[in-house]
């Protein structure tokens, strides 16, 4: 059986971004249903996708910018966070927009992320 990292390494950039969008939609449903363990598993899978794209030649996390206009707010939030290190101005602008939208829980999450950035608690890498 292949490891999770090996399975991701064999997928195209487009399939990883498509899966990231699916994860965001699933996270949104899990959050609304208070399914914390499911949220955690989905977060881990999303983190693995981000890491895979980061390690590809040229750091391909910028591909998450394709999801900035996604209809689902969780997908947008995840995409902004995934691109903070590679497209900081665009990512911050999206986080500010989400925070101002009052579309919770994502607006609260975006606001906390911006605060953590301002305080130096969170430094994208």
In short, what is this structure?
This protein has six helices and no strands. The protein has 125 residues and is mostly helical.
List the helices and strands and how they pair.
Elements (H helix, E strand, L loop, with lengths): L3 H6 L3 H20 L3 H20 L17 H10 L5 H14 L4 H14 L6
Helix pairs in contact: 2-3, 2-4, 4-5, 4-6, 5-6
Give me the number of helical elements: 6
How much is the radius of gyration in Å? 14 Å
The helix-and-strand class reads mainly alpha
Cα end-to-end separation: 31 Å
- The total beta strand count reads 0
Mass-distribution shape: globular
* % residues in beta strands: under 5%
Uncertain runs: none
The averaged pLDDT comes out at 95
Helix-strand string: HHHHHH
Helix-residue proportion? 55-70%
Give a quick account of the main beta sheet: strands, pairing sense, barrel closure: none
